[in-house]
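Methods: example folding runs. The two proteins below were folded one after another, and each record is reproduced exactly as written to the output file, sequence line first and structure-token line second.
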Amino acid sequence: MSLMLQLGLFGVGLVLLLVGADVFVRGAVRIASLLRVSRLLIGMTVVAFGTSAPELVLDVTAATRDAVDLAFGDLVGSNIANIGLILGVAAIVAPLEVHLRLMRVELQFVLAVSGGLWLMAWDGEVSRLDGILLLLGFGGFLLHLFRAARREPRAVRAEFERAAGNGWSWGRSTLAVVIGLSSLILGARGMVSSATVVARELGASEFLIGVTIVAIGTSLPELATAIMATARDEMDITVGNVLGSNIFNIAFVLGTVVQIRPIPVRGESLLIDLPVMCGLVLLLMVLVARRGWLTRRSGIVLAGTYVAYLVSKFVFIPIEPILEGTIP
């Protein structure tokens, strides 16, 4: 009964988190527009990074509650789900023909921050200094984005500008930000509390719950955005949001979280989860390089890889005890 109650609370927290993220992003987008920020930049930053609002609030909350394993699992798991699950499903729904010039730069940056995180973690911890380096990298990426955005083809700019449009007033937008942020905080607290209890009840680690169940939950905004954008033939938004979210998760969210509390990294993460995260980026680069776009077959490969990874987390015997003492 206790487990069912905690799962129910987890579900309520997830709903609050997702609804709050949507309302918050809508309000923030409109406020940025009222402040005369370019709609192109709003579409490529606030909208794209806004889908990572659940990860940001949940993982900061987890860090303040000494649940850093949960936070790290969510970040790694979300990045794996973004490429494997979300781009995979989106490409299966409709082949993703992408004209976004920044995609190749973003792919390289995703690979750089993913590989950089893997290297940073080899001493057994993501430290505050590591976090500062990640935040500096994120700042550099934003500068490049601002400079390069206007060189995109007109059709691509129009896609992102449409994504940034709504006619809300100052009052409605401010209220949306307040309500959305409040829902995000309440939902994050509920999810962190219930997820830690569920982990104890199931005899699983907080990292395992974070990298699977919580990560899938916090990736739902990206999945919803990808499916809707693909249905509207806005392929550039689909890919741009996923890549932007992965960069935001590692460079900004993780960089922020470790300033609150450095994160110890498990041996299993070093040998399985982080390599899978980097491997999926490389796989995506190979699939895109072959045709310049993602076919349905490519989508099946990405989604199948993600399913295989997910199954392995629950089916295979945990190897952490075997690895103990072998990783510095």
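Second run, written to the same file directly after the first:
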Amino acid sequence: MEKKQVLKLSRVGKKPIIIPAGVQVSITGSEVKVKGPKGELKFAFNDKIKVSVKETEVLVETTHNDAKVRALHGLTRALINNMIIGTTQEFKKALELQGVGYRATMKSDKELELVGIFSSHPVKFEVPAGVKLLIEKNIITITGIDKYLVGETAARIRKIRPPEPYQGTGIRYVGEYIRRKVGKAVTGTAAATGGGKK
């Protein structure tokens, strides 16, 4: 007797997504559109995944047992859930400038200027469409409805001057732990003689 294959579903993927009040979710072919108080997002999902709207829930399903499809199942569910969160309350990332003379200003809605992180010149950063930047003292807060775009923008700004491991100066995420390195210590004999061998 032939053994019946058991369909293994992603534990994340099979959980229904609750649609909160004020949010509209529509499916057209392989595209899901989410519209909420904060904006609108679209996402094209794989044709091996089925997405449907039942009353106040979004259901993400698949009939494929392949490991890659199961991974897509969970990922699709997570992305749609993030779309709903983003269009209702937005995502946020905060960066902190650490260093004497480090300063950030918005030259316009789409241009961030960083001063002091390089002694020779200020650095300009073009803010991508879909995110907003707020500056309070040495804190840069990035907000937007697209989780990936908010995270990518924060990572790109941090990359301009990552925190260095000795003094910890640079641009870091708020609350980020920087593992510090200890500088080379001068030995007592070398310090007393003014150096090593001549």
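Comment on the second run: Confidence is low (pLDDT under 50) at residues 1-7.
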